[in-house]
Amino acid sequence: MDRYIGRELTLPFLFGVGAFSSIGISVGALFELIRRVTDSGLSIWLALRIFVLKLPEFIVLAFPMSMLLATMMTYSRLSGDSELVALRGCGVSVRRIIAPAVVLSFLVTGLTFAFNELITPATNYQAAVTLERALNSERPPFQERNIFYQEFQSAADDPEEDELKRLFYARRFDGDTMYGLTVLDFSQQGLSQVVSAGSATWDFGKNTWSFYDGTIYAVSQDGSFRHIVRFDNQEMQLPRAPLDLASRTKDDSEMNIAEASRHLREVVRKSGDDRKIRTWEIRIQQKYALPFVCVVFGLVGASVGVRPQRTSRATSFGISLVIIFGYYLSAFISNALGEVGFLSPFMAAWLPTLMGLVAGILLVIKASR
Asked: What pTM does this model have?
């Protein structure tokens, strides 16, 4: 029975992956690439390459929807042909009948997680870089001038509030070396140190900055210089964030969980922007939550499909679209509530999935009676 239901689920699932991926990439990428070819002179070969690189993003988005479509179509067909009646007449429970769908949904959940971690971020990044180089070939992929970075820390008199810890300014950047640097250190009470240097590079082996041809001014509390130290080469324990800011910054769709967590810890948190911090925390939680939508849709689709009524494939497809729209609408609202601070980042990412999971379990219990 398990192998039979598994085979019945496979074809609609593959059909769903093809259908939803085609719709998604047409709306999300294909029309834009055609506009770039006609308006901006993007070559067809580069457009095709970007199209292929964008495919994994839309395939992974299609997995949960395909799971819903496959379970609804398969169990509706089995119910319509009275095969479920025969199975239940033999003493097979509804929970046992939908077990293959649950197992398949967990397998697709693992596949979705693997795509999101190993394939999609890398291909999205390559697609973005390829498009940027094609359209802005004369502009380097980094910020050339006026790199400005602010680092914050908890205020000494109120841990709930932030205050400026350090100001980092570089006049110019050539992709490897920054020139004309000034660093103001407020980590003690008031301005405690000023560092001026002709150039600086990031040492990837030591995770430190190497400053060259500079001067360190130690500032006393009354604003006068306590002492002045000149140096030819000095290692500085400063954050890497200015380099990340000057280099091309990946967005959250181009990072896996480890990269996004590092970016949140080393760059976003030190900016002191609470809304931006919440947004990144939500994005990271969504990377965990999204794959489990496959389980939700698998449960909901199977429990709706096993109802004793005849449902055509077109009707199943229509019901699937309504459920998908309802889920993503709730996810959009939950995300918005999280970004304004009404929900915690964890709840903003997981609430639609948890609600769907509860709904799926209740539907299974109802179908089992």
From this structure: 0.72
